[in-house]
Amino acid sequence: MKRIGIMTSGGDAPGMNAAVRAVTRKAEHEGLEAYGINYGYAGLLAGDIFKMDSRSADDIINRGGTILYSARFPEFAEEPVQLKGIEQLKKFGIDALVVIGGDGSYHGALRLTEHGFNAIGLPGTIDNDIPFTDFTIGFDSALQTATDAIDKLRDTARSHERTFVVEVMGRNAGDIAMWAGVAGAAEDVIIPEKDFKIEDVAAKLKSARARGQKHGIIVLAEGVMSAAEFAKKLEPFGDFQLRATTLGHVQRGGSPTAFDRVLATRMGVYAVDLLMEGKGGLAIGIQNNKLEYHNMLDLFDSKHQPDMDLYKVAKDLAF
Ligand code: ADP
Questions:
Q1: pLDDT over threshold 90, residue 54
Q2: Is the Cβ atom of 135 under 6 angstroms away from ligand 1?
Q3: Residue 80: CB partners within 8 Å, gap ≥ 6?
Q4: Does the interface ipTM go beyond 0.95?
Q5: Does the Cβ of 73 fall within 6 Å of ligand 1?
Q6: pTM of the predicted model as reported, rounded to 2 decimal places
């Protein structure tokens, strides 16, 4: 193996650049070359590919977004398009590929491996919704952004004795909501993995009011419903001075936290090690602070499980 390609695909996440840097520098350290592929699978097909070196990976570890850009390219689900992608890789003398992205990106990487071209996936998404890894690259940064926002909303909630319903990202996963809810001492946390009764939420707010606390924060995962819809459902149950706030894409941006940088760096280095061993079709994860890999096929058969112990902690403290 001489040349490793690297691309970011699907939704961007803080820490992707740290992974790009790690793959580039590790490749160089091992006497290999790294090639950046812009715009995910779309750029692969278009031949938007360039040689990277330690200098092109300079000063990117702290930058949010992805210097390799990202793009949706549904056509890559078709086999002739995948084979064309391999042709492009070969044209540039690339022998193996690291793909940073989510579930969809992993499908593309597995298809390439099945066609004889080794590809390895790194979990890059703020949603923390990938199986077999405790954390995805970008989750911690998004969590910090959500927590900072909740802290700020709490200030104004207290001043005006209002209740904020704060909708956070996570797609169908409640991880950002749960962690941000605990970190931000929310009065309640609502996640898609657990049913809730709007009456119970109202009862909690009422009992807090009876104790003299007239402001509050409810953290709502986007996978449940929108903040506006939730506030509408809650409104008939009492005068809570409700305000709905959707944090939105601000959670996807910003400089990655130290945790995400270190995670992405460790995973990037590990991916190069595995490719050098001739492996492919694997998804890298971290479990109990140990890097692991799993077959992508097994991963597609599994579902991410949120940390229900943490959910219980959130609920035990919210009354
Ligand atoms: P994520 O990787 O974050 O889940 P997407 O689902 O948008 O994001 O997938 C990113 C890209 O991966 C898609 O734009 C497409 O190019 C590729 N992809 C998605 N699904 C498949 C599939 N079933 N087979 C091959 N490639 C796929």
A1: no
A2: no
A3: none
A4: yes
A5: yes
A6: 0.97
